[in-house]
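Forwarding the complex inputs:
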Amino acid sequence: MSTLLGFPKNGYKVVPGPETYLSPSAAAMGVVLPNEGEALIEGDIVPEEVAYEEIANRLLSARNPTLFPGPLVLWAWSEKAVAKARALLEMVGEVPGMKIIPMPDYRPKYPMINPKVEINPNHPNLTIWHNNIDVCVFVGVHCHFANLALKIIRAGTDCYTIALCGQRGHEDAMITLRDVHAEEVMDLTDTIRKVKMERLSC
Amino acid sequence: MLERKVVSPEYMFFEAPREKKYLIGNEAVAEAVKRANVDMVISYPITPQSEATHIVGDIYAQGYVKDYYRGEDEFNVMSAMAGAAMGGVRAFTATSGPGTLRAFEMFPCWAGERLPIVCAFMTRGVNSPLTIQPDNIEIGWLADTGMLIFHAEDPQDFFDMILQAYVIAEQPDVHLPVGVCADGFFVTHTREIVELTPEDEMLPPYDPSVSPVVTMDMETVPVRHMKDPFVMKSNYISYNTHASWQQEVRAAAERARKYITRYMGSPVEVVHPGAEILFMASGTAAAQARVAMERMRAEGIDIGLVKIKVIRPFPEKEITELAEVPRIIIIPEHNITGWLARDIKSRVNNNAKIYGGPRVFGGMTMPPEMLVEETKKLLLNLVTA
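Prediction (whole assembly, two chains):
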């Protein structure tokens, strides 16, 4: 499962790459998903409030922060999805220069993909490299495909990955929150506003 | 059919009253399916599992299962099971030995598609020469499909593990198929006391909206499914994606450990863990080793037992820790290949103290007397050496 020979389990850090030819899954390296009320930062379990602050700092410090919304928030398939999408738009509005590049579906699109306008889980690095994205946020992507992409990004790029998961979270992201719905996105937006104010007052 | 109510898995597994019934393993399977709130069962007869899905057909007729039919062969059945699960329903099937092999291509497909199917494997010998008798060689092959694999010791385990399997399989971060294995005839056709949960209580229905892949039921988000086959592309991206995909399936199995602990207590059961000699065994071999252990302990021999309930994900941490103490580890098995001994030896430090055997196969029984005799011979040989 792992290509990192001799690397001790439980000492693994989920940090920006490029890591190696074929990155292991973080789960194979002993990283476990957080329980309710918790989050992961670089493989370590932390209270979710700590992760909110770290996400805000990462986004506000980024040169080219980008949101990758997936099908679960791109389509108005439920009232909850609509509310979450609206909350995400508000969040993006609070981060200076933050772009949105959608992941509308999961079929491989090489060599035809237009990396300016979309990202695909099977070859996410084409979009990250083309747009020089240094911090990205996955949201609304079905968990299997998010994990697929997050490993490939860690193996081949230096992009800092954040996953706002509606289910149990993603070990392969550098920061992950779990159980993220519209309300939690609004909480994150509030944290971003607060951190912005703190930075302005410094 | 009884009027039924949905109860939580925690209540069903740990709090619900239990009623004792005298059942064979195949009957216990049907009782589990009845309580598992299964939507669809697809069957194909093969000894020794035929009776289980036959009885499940009866409970379908009574209304406990929403849909049921007989496929044309095992490959057809397992393919149709994939379709059912992709469509977002809770599905169940069962097979044995040659049926497992005929359908084999579908098991890694189930895992790769992240389908939370539960399949009972009533293991038997595989051809040739033709046999229908007990032998669990197929579990060793199933172990590398990406499925979670449980191994039942008796009809009680078979009943409990099928229910636990659905709850673990359907966790959003796991979402993998589970093979619940039991040794054919020894478990499927042996009548024992089984403690059943109330017949009018069932698990909550499956919620396909939390699936980590797209459910193809036209009710969820309209999205093109990942069906453009990687095999058609010969380039780095396609290989890299396939590799990442395989890693994610194994990662999902790793995530199952938390839920195995929560719902099954532990992937292993330990009796006398500090003993100088340990049997490590699964399935019927664990049952026979348990009897042999008691007889030897009555004679003053310091021996214990580790029953391995979960074959995948392999309980590596538990086994390596338990293997630290004893001077001798004996691994009896009901197959010729010794897949369990291989698994354990490859993970334990100082594996020279591990003795893979005795093994019986082709339908042969494993009498506790034989285990006692072989253990004593081993001890004598070690003393002589």
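Residues 38-201 of chain A form a domain with the Rossmann fold fold (CATH 3.40.50.1220).
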